[in-house]
């Protein structure tokens, strides 16, 4: 059964697209069949993060009725599949956002995971994405404005019968002036699944158009994203499995 997960943030600049791309790649490397869809038609960035910009057929073409869904699906880094939003302003004028529902319906039972990279805020397209999804993954920064905007998104999602799967706290700096995990969970009313630290390797990877989990697999951000992928997939992290094989794992069992 396909899990359709909307990745949203409420506020812009949280690093939502970077998290979406790397989470998808991490799951694909685990052997999961993952399809990412960039539904941010006005400010598309997913293809840039994956280093696969300039694809000939995009979501804009599909929503304009000029192409089939299968023609816009590409295989990206790590084996992740993705549908780029497209960067054509002319095509944007003729794209019908309501057809996003048809795209999601086409993918049902054709892949294990569908991640919808939603625009920030609560635009019509974001609402369509939330409506199409069964689950919501919120990406926030550890500050009050980001968290309160995410809360608004969660409230709207619940009205659309979309369940909050969890929260990802991104760009954690341990400065002492940030909101902690418990505060964020209390305000939003959900579980923090991952805390991804501010990591210079992420910026380097983005600048080179490469997922950080592939470019720098051992950096702190990559490890946090892989742990998140394990939780989403419902399996143990590799490090935890290896630990359980040892003496202390034996005692713990």
Q: Number of helical segments?
A: 13
CATH superfamily: P-loop containing nucleotide triphosphate hydrolases
| Poorly predicted tracts of residues | 237-245, 247-253
- Taking all residues together, what is the mean pLDDT? 92
Shape: globular
The main pleated sheet reads as: 8 strands, mixed
Structural class: alpha/beta
**What is the straight-line distance between the termini?**
32 Å
> What is the count of β-strands?
8
Name the beta content range: 15-25%
User: Strand-and-helix sequence, N→C?
Assistant: EHEHHEEHHEHEHEHEHHHHH
CATH topology: Rossmann fold
Helix content: 40-55%
Q: Strands of the largest sheet, in order across it?
A: 3-4-2-5-1-6-7-8
What value does the Rg take, in angstroms?
18 Å
The level-1 CATH class: Alpha Beta
| Second CATH tier, the architecture | 3-Layer(aba) Sandwich
Q: Total domains, how many?
A: 1
Walk me through this protein's architecture.
The protein has a single domain, classed as P-loop containing nucleotide triphosphate hydrolases (Rossmann fold), CATH 3.40.50.300. 43% of the residues lie in helices and 17% in strands. The chain has 13 helices and eight strands. Helix 7 links the parallel strand 6 (135-140) and strand 7. Helix 1 packs across helix 11. Residues 237-245 and 247-253 have low confidence and may be disordered.
């Amino acid at each position: 059964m396909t899990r359709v997960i909307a990745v949203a943030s409420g506020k812009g600049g949280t690093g939502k697209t970077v998290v979406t791309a790397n989470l998808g790649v991490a799951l694909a490397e685990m052997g999961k069949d993952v399809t990412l869809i960039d539904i941010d038609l006005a400010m598309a960035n997913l293809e840039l993060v994956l280093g696969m910009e300039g694809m000939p057929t995009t979501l804009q073409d599909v929503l304009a009725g000029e192409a089939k869904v299968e023609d816009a699906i590409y295989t990206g880094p790590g084996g992740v599949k993705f549908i780029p939003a497209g960067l054509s302003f002319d095509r944007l004028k003729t794209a019908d956002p309501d057809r996003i529902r048809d795209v999601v319906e086409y993918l049902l039972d054709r892949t294990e995971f569908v991640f919808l990279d939603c625009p920030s805020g609560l635009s019509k397209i974001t609402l369509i994405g939330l409506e199409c999804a069964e689950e919501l993954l919120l990406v926030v920064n550890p500050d009050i404005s980001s968290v309160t905007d995410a809360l608004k998104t969660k409230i709207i999602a619940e009205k659309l019968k979309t369940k909050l799967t969890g929260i990802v706290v991104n760009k954690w700096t341990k400065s002492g002036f940030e909101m902690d995990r418990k505060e964020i969970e209390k305000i939003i009313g959900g579980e923090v699944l991952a805390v991804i630290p501010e990591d210079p390797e992420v910026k380097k990877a983005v600048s080179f158009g490469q997922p950080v989990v592939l470019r720098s697999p051992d950096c702190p951000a990559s490890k946090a994203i892989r742990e998140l992928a394990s939780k989403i997939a419902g399996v143990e992290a590799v490090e935890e499995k290896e630990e359980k094989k040892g003496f202390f794992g034996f005692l713990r069992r």
